[in-house]
Write a structure and sequence with these properties.
Chain lengths: 277, 469
């Protein structure tokens, strides 16, 4: 057997075993239940109440935002799982044992990545059913760009998973990988929220402090757009809403480059540091 | 590997803090670009005699007014639109209360002669000479504006002056005629009082008609650089008659285009007529609950980069638009009046609505309340028409399911970007919380199935089966 066929086989076996392990456990289903409940209560119900209270509302499709929130939370969960899994296996010494067999850094990283991406397809299937039923029940409807977002979300998940794998490869201790991943994702989310909020403020009569804050956030945003996996999805989302196919494809390609770079970096780190505890 | 990441994040944090600290040293100066010497003086800011480019950029709906002082290095203009610039010298100062540069135009306003050179790269792209221009308002000062340039500008102004002169002559003649008519009427009334005999209708003179004031308004002609440019980055400068560049006149020029065009709606719900809702994006859906009446005022709209647009319209306000380079804004340009709204259900037009005038009348009594009524033309015997509060398309919909709304022009063509989906919502709380249970139920079923498989395995064989699985 050639090196590549060995690798392919190792990737397949790792991904399959891990996927089945995830699907046979209750964790993923509980997480999806919590996410769906949160979005139904916190987002869809609020939109419906607004329409009822005001009689009329002009909104972007209220199914899109909760769907976006769902895929983001699910992708974060999978990214976190990746971060935990690799560093835990290193801490427990499992990784070392595994690498005595026909597994190398590349096949291990790709196996882990593939497993999480396949898990995300399961998440998507559940999300599709959940939001289809909700849209039918409330008559909120699917927007025309929903399926564009659906495809885009796969690349968001890909970025988040690669980000988690990269951090876990870089971190020596499990706790450090987890804390770093959660902190960075929280930072990206809070930054994105603050940036969106301050941009939505009417320009007239802003205090100097707010203008100052807006200027700093807008400048830092230039940097964040390249680091944050969330930013790649947001760019694609904007392209979808504008029907800009070129930008949409660019967003997908840049997500793939981001994923490749992070996975490549993870493989290099594994090779340089080794897999010993 | 922990160290490089920590040091990278640490460096990033230090860099951000350093930038913040530099700005924090004097944020107002960093943000406003106002040198301290211009700010000096309490209540009476120090004026600086300097060259400025006065700007009347086309903003999409009107000609704005701003200027580029020495402290500003980049001017922003719309692509493919006629813009006006002039080279002047004035006393410039910074007014801290409203945080803007001001020019003492009434104190000092010196024309600086020369030609405007527009450079793209290092070569001259266009040379513009000063030309006279006027603003013409055919429907009155608050109506739409037309720009008249070249030799036609003074002619337009002369026509306006003649119209005004004719009007004043007509008014003068009217007052003379009115005075004569009043004289005749006084005599007639005196006779009626003396004789007690009513005058016959033929004897009563017709009252003179007051002449109608012309609506046209034209500004007096001014000379300036009038030009339009395609999208791009340029440099501009003023060149005197010797071909020398006039000092302080070089600026960067950014000419930008809209990202998207469409139709925006101002939606006035009958229940809250003072609180209109805006729908700028065609991706927005109009959600209704129950039977609703609302009024639509559609406008053409263009989406611009917020920073560029605000800098274009308010360049003399250094804080305007700061921190909005990544933001976009819709600008409503012209209200759409000569169109009809169609409501479609399952692809079939079920309603066609015309634009009509409406009047908001308060209900009698002390309690609050109002009715929105259509303004109809005056009937015979009625003297004057009621002035409408607004003109709009009235939509009354018992929304059931999904509808599509769109605008069609006089030739029946759909106006691009005018489509909006209308949906009625169904509000039911408990099913919202039952649907999320689906993954949990699936998960429990999977776990139960796995347990049932395990229970089928003879004791002592679990490890083997697990390994094979």
């Amino acid at each position: 057997m050639s090196v590549w066929s060995n690798r392919t086989n190792a990737i397949k076996v790792t991904a399959r075993r891990e996927l089945l392990s995830t699907l046979y456990g209750l964790g993923l289903y509980v997480v999806l239940f919590v996410i769906f409940l949160l979005t139904a209560y916190g987002s869809i119900r609020v939109s419906l109440l607004n329409v009822v209270n005001n009689g009329l509302e002009a909104l972007p499709n209220p199914i899109t935002s909760p769907f976006y929130l769902t895929v983001f939370l699910a992708a974060t969960y999978l990214g976190l799982c990746s971060a935990i899994a690799i560093s835990r296996e290193r801490e427990q010494g499992t990784l070392e044992v595994l690498f005595y067999g026909p597994v190398d850094s590349l096949s291990y990283v790709l196996g882990k990545y593939l497993q999480q991406v396949l898990t995300f397809f399961v998440v998507l299937a559940f999300s599709l059913v959940n939001f289809f039923l909700l849209s039918q029940l409330t008559n909120l409807g699917f927007s025309g760009n929903f399926f564009g977002l659906l495809i885009l979300s796969i690349f968001l998940a890909s970025c988040m998973i690669a980000f988690g794998i990269f951090l876990s490869a870089a971190a020596k201790r499990n706790i450090f990988a987890v804390v770093l991943f959660i902190s960075l994702v929280l930072f990206f989310v809070i930054f994105w929220g603050a940036h969106s909020l301050i941009m939505a403020l009417p320009g007239k009569n802003l205090t100097t402090l707010l203008i100052y804050t807006r200027l700093i956030l807008d400048n830092v945003n230039i940097l964040i757009q390249w680091i944050s996996p969330l930013a790649y999805f947001v760019r694609g989302m904007v392209a979808v809403s504008q029907g800009n196919i070129g930008q949409y494809l660019l967003s997908i390609v840049s997500s793939l480059i981001y994923t490749t770079l992070l996975l490549g970096a993870a493989v290099i780190i594994f090779d340089r540091r080794g897999v010993k505890r | 590997m922990k160290r490089p990441i920590v040091s990278f994040l640490g460096s990033l944090l230090i860099a951000v803090l350093a930038v913040g600290l530099v700005w924090a040293a004097d944020p107002s100066e960093a943000l406003t670009q106002v040198p301290q010497e211009v700010k000096e003086g309490q209540g009476t800011p120090k004026k600086e005699h300097q060259f400025v480019w006065s700007l009347s950029p086309w903003t999409g709906k009107e000609f704005g007014g701003s200027f580029a002082p020495r402290q500003v290095d980049t001017i922003y203009l719309l692509a493919g639109e006629t813009n006006i610039m002039n080279s002047l010298r004035s006393e410039i100062y910074y007014w801290d209360i409203t945080q803007e540069y001001m020019a003492d135009w009434f104190g000092t306003k010196e024309e600086v002669d020369g030609k405007l050179e527009i450079l793209k790269g290092n070569s001259v792209f266009k040379t513009v000479e000063k030309t006279p221009y006027v603003y013409s308002y055919p429907e009155g000062y608050y109506g739409r504006v037309e720009l008249v340039t070249g030799p036609e500008a003074p002619e337009a102004f002369e026509r306006y002056e003649k119209l005004q002169d004719d009007y004043y002559d007509a008014v003068s003649a009217y007052y003379d005629a009115q005075s004569k008519w009043q004289e005749k009427m006084d005599k007639l009334l005196a006779r009626v009082r003396e004789t007690g005999q009513y005058a016959s209708p033929e004897e009563i003179p017709a009252s003179p008609q007051q002449p109608e004031a012309p609506k046209l308004y034209v500004t007096s002609p001014v000379e300036a650089f009038v030009f339009d440019l395609p999208e791009g980055k340029y440099r501009i400068r003023l060149v005197d008659s010797n071909g020398e560049v006039v000092p302080e006149t070089q600026k960067n020029l950014v000419v930008f285009s809209p990202r998207r065009a469409g139709v925006g709606y101002e939606i006035i719900p009958e229940s809250k007529w003072t609180k209109p809702v805006l729908s700028d994006d065609r991706n927005q859906v109009l959600y209704l609950e129950g039977r609703r009446t609302f009024y639509l005022k559609p406008s053409h709209e263009l989406e611009y980069n917020q920073y560029q647009y605000l800098k274009m319209s308010s360049l003399h306000k250094p804080l305007e638009g700061l921190g909005t380079r990544s933001a976009w804004m819709w600008v409503h340009t012209e209200e759409i009046v000569d169109a009809k709204i169609q409501i479609l259900k399952d692809g079939e037009v079920i309603q066609t609505i015309e634009r009509k005038p409406y009047y908001v009348e308060q209900t009698p009594g002390y309690a609050l309340g109002y009715n929105i009524v259509e303004v109809t033309p005056p009937e015979e015997g009625e003297t004057s028409e009621r002035e409408p509060t607004f003109e709009a398309f009235r939509i009354d919909l018992e929304a059931k399911g999904k509808y599509v709304m769109r605008l069609v022009d006089a030739s029946g063509e759909v106006i691009p970007g005018s489509e909006r989906v209308i949906r009625s919502v169904r509000v039911a709380s408990w099913p919202l919380y039952t649907i999320p249970l689906i993954p949990l139920l699936v998960g429990l079923a999977v776990v139960a199935w796995r347990r049932s498989l395990k229970s089928d395995i003879p004791e002592g064989m679990e490890t083997q089966v697990t390994t094979e699985g």
